[in-house]
Amino acid sequence: MTAVRSVGIVGTGFAGAAAAILLAEAGVQVELFDAKEDVGALGSGITIQGNACRALVRLGVWDEVQRRSYPFEELGLRAPDPQGTVIAVLPDVKTGGPDLPATIGMYRPDLARILVERAEAVGARIRWGARVEGLVQQGDEVELTWHDADGLHREHFDLVIGADGLHSTVRALLGIDVQPRRNGMGIWRAFVPRPAEVTRTDLVYGGPSYIAGYCPTSEDHIYAYLVEDAQDRSTLSPAEQVATMRRLAESYHGPWDEIRESLGDDSRVNYTWFTEHLIDGPWNRGRVVVIGDAAHSCPPTIAQGAAMSLEDALVLAELLIDADAIDDALWQRFTERRLPRARTIVEASKQLANWLLAHDRDADVPGLMHRVTAVVGLPA
């Protein structure tokens, strides 16, 4: 017997959809609430490492993900010179095990849609356009209040999961005073046709940007990105965004010459600031818990954000399914399994970003990455 019969999940992102899949498969009544009107996801692409691939296998979506992604086993480093010279090709660590790719690239909205459709297929109900406004815990129940086009509604659940992202409403309703902090970097991303020679992620450190990189997402497309000092880019028109990214890319060559020329109105150029935060203690308050970006975030310098969100959901669902009751012992097990691992990723991502900000040429990046892969190579 599982510890819950009904669960409300706020947010349909990676963490929320993953938790919904596993709980619904176990026979739990699951309802997801999202203020958005549909599954649309911000961003152009996403880099997914082996431990996240392992989670996608468990969620029953791996076959579809394989059809919609691009696998690779190496990481390239290029120089910021006129030729875009390859200076090193490093084997990626297969953190998901020998039978899975070391890394895949994918169009981020495709992954979001695959997970949501899987959640619906196994029985989860999704309420789009539902804005959560209140949580009241009463004994063994949580009353969740939300508002949609039809007015105000209330429903009771055995448990509520807040998987509603960086600026989590659930986190605020719980009174957890932890907010994402900007770290001083901003990133331009674009979705463009794949140059024939791009078969892996290549990174360039140096030049006018901290990082110039790209990741193949399919046979036909890649996403390209440039990391700069964070600036207010909110006043730029779409055409000005494209022009700005083109200008920053002028210092990078090799495949960047073709990438730069392909940037246009259909490139879905977007700009965001890097953030970091961690709830450094239990992520629950009674029968309400936050996971994923609601609980932690970090600069995407080691490409583990999605993996950590998926792992949060898998561990929480496993504990709820195997337990007979929601009690302090359950929450202690959850904290012990997730907090140290999340802390390792957040701190490592911050450290790498700080080294870049400080232009530290003596930074022990290989040592840091070895420590990270040693952790994420173990099942969550």
Explain this structure to me?
The chain has 380 residues and is an alpha+beta fold. It folds into 2 domains: 6-69 and 107-180 and 276-376, FAD/NAD(P)-binding domain, CATH 3.50.50; 72-102 and 185-274, D-Amino Acid Oxidase, Chain A, domain 2 (2-Layer Sandwich). The chain has 10 helices and 20 strands. It has helices at 14-25, 50-58, 62-67, 108-121, 169-173, 238-249, 255-262, 305-322, 328-357, 365-376; strands spanning 6-10, 29-34, 46-49, 69-72, 74-78, 86-91, 103-106, 125-128, 131-138, 141-148, 151-157, 159-162, 181-193, 201-206, 209-216, 221-229, 270-278, 284-285, 288-290, 296-297. The strands form 4 sheets. Strands 6-5-14-15-16-13-17-20 form an 8-stranded mixed sheet. The mean pLDDT is 96.
